[in-house]
Write a structure and sequence with these properties.
alpha+beta
């Protein structure tokens, strides 16, 4: 396994999502079919919201959604399938309130329980096997990836039904256990406020209401909307009662029904002051209304699509996310549905896909490659590198395809920069090796806000030890205009530089083994030392993880791999930083060999035969041919685990691993498989095979634990020369585990140990044991990394810095074959180079031009040329431009580049929105109102940019930072449109190019809306080039006197020409016409440099469409305008800090006296540091009210 084997001492059930819903297709053109993979999918809120968001009032065909849902917890999938089948039934419109209860209430009224049980009885009957399910009414939109998942869903549905037949004593015990679990959560976690993040920029208003709602939910088992409707809820909701923990109450203590919804909606409509906040009842009402709207959209979609061509397909798989990804890739390459991958940890069953949907000739093909992959926050639990390694091969190499990762748990001392630690290497170089890069690392801005998370950090608030960050990753190379796989660039590295970088990654992946770090933590003050102590026990990787990473790198990188890996191996052997690193050296070499990356000299077939012939170890007496890697299987008596189980819960989730111990020799193996059952062994020598008969009760049964792991045979033979050599099952020595078990288990933390010659408990096999549930053994050989042959000019050589920690430049050779260019080069004509886009340079030889692509943005202005006139080639050496060290730039226009994909524009870091699904809002006019809008918009600036703006405003001198200036213009537009600080709202704006004193764009703001899924705001606007016709129309409507002029210099004006097409494209509800200017000019914008206002930077396809949203006073400009969604461009938290280190919530938000509303000359309350007063008298008068919320 590529991740560690954790003992599930503490198992939580996550039936409800803990972050607000997002639109899964926000990066895809609406015409494109969405093949979506959801890992750790959790509840279906993202699916429901995506369907709701994609729904339009137009007659256009809805976007087809094919969604594969993977979750380790079959109970989650059973609930989700239950919901979608209910929504597909006739007459369900009147049952939405009961469906809400079924999905979100811990306790049920009789009406809801009756509906639940009736549906489950129907599903149990339909799910007898895959054939009966396919014959049923739901199979055209709901299916499973394998028969085992269907059986698991049926098992859960059956458990729900069986509760209706419990005896009175069983009912009493069942309910008592459930209520005790509820009571424990209610008592121990009364101040849980993590759902406040679902209010985004209005989170501060939601804090108290969220706490109140959470406590009400856990004490009553219900969501209280204040309506007092429905019957009395006294029955346990069985969908919350059963999980991987069986019938033990395991619902996670942070579960909150409102957390998956958009709480900014009720907050924006009610909140005026922090003291007032939002009423919990109304928060629940808003969540129920959203749920009802989302479900209604799904119902419409299911009923409007045909069974032969459904618009929505849901595929479900119950099992491990990493394993499932490897299975999909394995099937996609080999076309085999029988695979060598375990379903999950603690299971010996292998994944066998349904041949109806997968394999060589499926009747109803399912995707194995995807344009949307959402990995939820699994990186918190299994490591980002593990996630990227298995998902990157599944992501389609198209400009719009995106992989989403989320982090919730804080990592490091600066959680906003945690991604830089998660990735285990310098981010641009890791991106090059993996072939995938965060889109915001390229653009240096984002339209998705997590400003509220930054504010919480600055305020010192701790939302359950969490910091939420969601990133979109894109395949490298797809940013090049007109990209196709045939144009893919291949990277070349120096073997020594590559080896040094890989070794750096290796050190970071296993930094817990670095004793210097542990000793350094001891010198810290108590709080940081405790945090470091806890972090050192959070582990994600095995040596197989690293081998899989290098395996993926080898498919992309050209180098002398033998030399590189020999150098790397030498570094590992000589290293003294990883104190126990060499204990895992054998495992590292084993998996590098198994994956076809590299075979160490001591593992070659010749060396294996030599040791076998010379040493003749007794353990291998019956073996004729010994493979390079063998499998060791331990049969561990159940009592060895049972006696420690209670203590396991005290250290969380201890890690199991194995070792082989001989005199002066110990080798550890963390990549192990474990399951409960019996082992049946037959045969001798290399023909000896093992069959695991799995105990379905798993860890809740009484069967032995069967553990297996791969080992180099030469290592086992040498260890076996010691007659006392043993194999053992041990605990990983994390600080908490060592402190707890050292005295009981000894220095090796051995739970079980037996001699290698113990034929009862230790078995050495040529192949891993198989499972009794497998229909057949997979005989497909393991996939080896293969690079296609490429011509030299397709190879980009990467050069690293002296320390080999980051790529500093690229070298690309361009062979000149054009006769005219060749002659010009030989004649001595000047060769020049210019920037075409972030990733492209143009080499000019006389009148001939040659475009050169780079895998990441480069700084062409500082590029160097090597010219071989006689040999007819030019080499370009260009420094790489992406960096975590952000500086201002004059030309940022290329950061707003859009690309044509299948005739539709694809956006980069700007996500799509359906403005009709973004609720409008107006700011409170209450004299004591806390204006959340100003700080939210103002915090799009980074700390660096705010400092520069302050200098610029004081000195009057212009600073060459165009992105900062665009943000300043957006800041002016949004604040003016909102009418903040007592000013009336403005609706008409023009952009003025100060270098030419020309107005080039008119903006009509129709409304301000909440982009609830991205936690930000949007100006719903209509834009038009300021042509003479538009200018005359403004004059005739009397709007020319109410215009707000926004000044932009030449660089900013140019950048706006590239930004504007993105702002219109992101919200379009129309289709591009065959005469679209983007298509006819093959360029976005169609006139990149054109100063002529008649040459619009955005196409005319949407002109005059959707103008019914225009206010009446603007109707006259309707035929000239195109709808646009204008939102803040936020700084990227892992690149630049946004919130000040110490943040006063009202420093930007409000400069008014809390009591009288007076502005200026204010003093802040010394206790809470939030509320301000103009005088001592006002503070005293307001104390009676203020003390209620003063903290």
């Amino acid at each position: 396994m590529s991740h560690l084997l954790f003992w599930p001492a503490k198992t939580f059930f996550y039936p409800i999502g803990n972050t607000s819903a997002v639109c899964l297709t926000e990066n895809l053109p609406p015409e494109q079919k969405a093949d979506i993979l959801l890992l750790a999918c959790g509840d279906p809120r993202h699916i429901l919201y995506t369907v709701y968001t994609n729904e339009t009032n137009l007659s256009t065909k809805p976007q087809n959604l094919d969604i594969t849902c993977c979750d380790i917890e079959a109970g989650v999938l059973a609930r989700n399938a239950l919901l979608f089948t209910l929504l597909a039934d006739d007459g369900v419109e009147d049952k939405l309130n009961s469906i809400w209860n079924i999905f979100y209430h811990l306790l049920l009224d009789q009406t809801s329980l009756t509906l639940l049980l009736a549906q489950c009885r129907k599903l149990v009957g339909l799910a007898k096997d895959t054939d009966s399910w396919r014959a049923g009414p739901y199979s055209h939109f709901l299916t499973t990836c394998d028969a085992a998942t269907l059986a698991e869903l049926r098992r859960f549905w059956n458990m729900y039904v069986e509760t209706a037949d419990y005896t009175p004593q069983q009912v009493k015990q069942f309910k008592s256990n459930f209520l005790n679990g509820m009571r424990e959560v209610s008592q121990r976690h009364a101040l849980t406020m993590t759902s406040s993040r679902s209010a985004g920029p209005l989170a501060v208003f939601a804090l108290q209401a969220v706490v109140d709602q959470f406590n009400s939910f856990w004490s009553s088992g219900l969501t209280d909307d204040g309506s007092q409707s429905g019957g009395k809820a006294t029955s346990v909701n069985p969908t919350f009662a059963f999980s991987m923990a069986r019938d033990k109450f395991a619902v996670h203590y942070g579960t909150d029904p409102v957390g998956g919804f958009h709480l900014a909606v009720p907050c924006s409509s009610e909140s005026s002051t922090l003291r007032d906040g939002v009423v919990p009842h109304n928060m629940v009402c808003a969540a129920k209304n959203q749920f009802s709207q989302w479900c209604t959209s799904v119902m419409k979609l299911l009923k409007s699509s045909s069974a032969s061509s459904p618009s929505l397909i849901l595929r479900m798989f119950a099992g491990d996310a990493l394993m499932f990804c490897q299975v999909l890739h394995y099937c996609g390459v080999s076309q085999s549905i029988v695979t060598p991958f375990d379903v999950a940890a603690w299971r010996s069953s292998k994944i066998e896909l349904d041949g109806h949907h997968y394999g060589k000739s499926p009747r109803s093909p399912a995707p194995t490659y995807f344009n949307v992959i959402d990995s939820s926050n699994v990186l918190d639990h299994i490591g980002l590198v593990n996630v990227l390694v298995v998902t990157t091969p599944l992501l389609r190499r198209t400009p719009s395809a995106a992989l989403y990762t989320e982090a919730l748990l804080k990592k490091g001392d600066n959680p906003s920069k945690a991604i830089l630690e998660h990735v285990c290497g310098e981010i641009s170089t890791m991106s090059l090796l993996l072939g995938i890069v965060p889109s915001t690392f390229i653009s240096r801005f984002t339209t998705r806000s997590n400003v509220n998370e930054s504010i919480d950090l600055a305020l010192g608030q701790d939302l359950g030890g969490q910091y939420h960050e969601r990133l979109a990753w894109k395949a490298i190379g797809t940013y090049v205009v007109g990209f196709t796989d045939a144009q893919q660039q291949f990277l070349s590295f120096s073997p020594d530089e590559l080896a040094a970088f890989l070794f750096g990654v290796y050190l970071k992946m296993f930094s817990d083994e670095n004793m210097a770090n542990k000793f350094a933590a001891l010198s810290l003050s108590p709080a940081p030392a405790l945090r470091a102590f806890r972090r050192s026990g959070v582990l994600h990787y095995t040596r197989r993880s690293f081998a899989q990473f290098v395996h993926l790198v080898k498919t992309r990188i050209r180098t002398d791999w033998t030399k590189a890996m020999r150098t790397f191996e030498d570094m590992v052997q000589r290293d003294s930083r990883l104190f126990i690193g060499m204990l895992y050296y054998q495992e590292l070499c084993c998996h590098l060999h198994l994956l076809g990356v590299f075979t160490s000299d001591w593992m070659t077939p010749h060396k294996v035969r030599e040791i076998h012939g010379d040493k003749k170890p007794a353990l291998f007496r019956d073996w004729t041919e010994i493979p390079q890697v063998i499998n060791v299987v331990l049969v561990v008596p159940r009592i060895n685990i049972t006696r420690l189980e209670e203590e396991f819960s005290e250290v969380g989730t201890p890690i199991f691993q194995c070792d082989i111990l001989a005199v002066y020799r110990q080798n550890c193996f963390a990549s192990i498989s474990g399951s409960f059952g019996t082992l049946e062994v037959v045969g001798k020598g290399e023909n000896k095979t093992g069959l695991i008969v799995e105990d379905q009760a798993g860890r809740f049964g009484e069967s032995s634990l069967i553990v297996s792991f791969s080992v180099p045979s030469s290592s086992v033979m040498l260890s076996a020369l010691d007659s006392a050599a043993t194999a053992g099952l041990t605990l990983r020595g994390t600080p908490a585990v060592s402190a707890k078990f050292f005295g009981k288990l000894g220095p090796n933390l051995s739970m079980f140990r037996a001699q290698l010659m113990d034929t009862k408990h230790v078995h050495v096999l040529a192949q891993p044991p198989t499972s009794s549930t497998a229909s057949q053994r997979d005989t497909t050989p393991p996939m080896k990394p293969v690079l296609p042959d490429v011509i030299p000019e397709k190879i980009t050589r990467a050069q690293m810095n002296e320390s080999c920690t980051t790529v500093k430049s690229f070298t690309v050779r361009k062979d000149i074959t054009d006769p005219i260019a060749k002659a010009s080069l030989a004649s001595g004509v000047a060769v020049t180079i210019g920037q075409v886009s972030m990733h492209e340079a143009c080499v000019r030889i006389g009148t001939c031009e040659h475009v050169i692509d780079f895998p990441l943005p480069v700084d062409v202005g500082n590029a160097k040329l090597r010219i071989a006139r006689n040999s007819s080639y030019v080499e370009v050496i260009a420094p790489i431009s992406p960096s975590v060290d952000i500086k201002g730039e004059c030309d940022v226009s290329k950061r707003f580049s859009a690309f044509l994909e299948g005739g539709s524009p694809t956006l980069g870091s700007i996500h799509r929105v359906n403005l009709g699904r973004c609720p409008p809002f107006k700011l409170s006019k209450h004299p004591k109102a806390l204006n959340w809008f100003v700080p939210h918009v103002s915090l799009m600036f980074s700390q660096r940019e705010r400092a520069q703006l302050e200098i610029q405003n004081k000195s009057g001198a212009s600073i060459a930072d165009t992105l900062m200036n665009i943000k300043d213009s957006l800041h002016t537009l949004l604040l003016s449109a909102a009418g903040v600080q007592g000013n009336p709202p403005q609706s008409v704006f023009t952009l003025l190019n100060t270098s030419k004193m020309e107005h080039y764009l008119c903006i009509f703001v129709a409304n301000l809306r909440l982009d609830v899924a991205s936690h930000t705001v949007i100006a719903d606007a209509f834009i038009a080039p300021r042509t003479p016709a538009v200018r005359d129309k403004l004059f005739s409507l009397g709007l020319d006197l109410r215009v707000v002029n926004i000044k932009t210099d030449a660089d900013e004006s140019k950048a706006w020409r590239y930004l504007l097409p993105l702002l219109t494209e992101r919200c379009r509800t129309w289709t591009h016409k065959p005469t679209c200017e983007y298509l006819s000019h093959n360029s976005i914008p169609p006139f990149p440099e054109g100063p002529d206002p008649e040459k619009s930077p955005f196409c005319s396809c949407g002109r005059g469409v959707g103008t019914e949203a225009l206010p009446k006073r603007f109707k006259g400009v309707g035929p000239y305008v195109t709808r646009a969604a204008i939102s803040p461009l936020f700084s990227v938290p892992y690149l630049e800090a946004s919130a000040p280190e110490k943040y006063d919530l009202t420093a930007v938000a409000r400069a008014k006296c809390q009591l009288c509303g007076k502005e200026g000359g204010l003093s802040v309350c010394s206790r809470c540091k939030i509320v301000k007063y103009c005088s001592r008298e006002c503070q005293v008068k307001d104390w009676k009210e203020h003390k209620k919320g003063c903290v």
